[in-house]
């Protein structure tokens, strides 16, 4: 029986998060069920390396589920949204702060503190701007953007 190539790719895409989650659970001391809130494909590795973010941590693994870096990305708080930026950085939006980290090393490169606790979600990146929105009950929200500077530090 011949299976169309498109179906194989779709099945692989659906299977990979489950496979990666099982590998990550086996290497962490967290008890109970772990739900990743972001799986980021790192483009500089031709799609063969991903950053799996769960709770307040992130782990770099390959498409076979093997950990590729000894580095564990440690967020200051559990982000509600995580995104890869063209500047080879990862940005995480927490309820109290926005963190900017190196995608290669996981090192903290910048922090922007909120005036009040709120849930923020990544929308998109265009040129040197990162757009995100507040998520509020009742269906209302507000859209914000940050401009990334020369050193990839951001301004509001």
TrEMBL record:
Residues 1-26 form the signal peptide. Residues 31-125 form the CNH domain. Keywords: Kinase, Serine/threonine-protein kinase, Signal, Transferase. Its EC number is 2.7.11.1. Pfam families: CNH. GO terms for molecular function: protein serine/threonine kinase activity. One of its GO terms (cellular component) is cytosol. Belongs to the protein kinase superfamily. STE Ser/Thr protein kinase family. STE20 subfamily. This is non-specific serine/threonine protein kinase. The lineage of its organism: Eukaryota, Metazoa, Chordata, Craniata, Vertebrata.
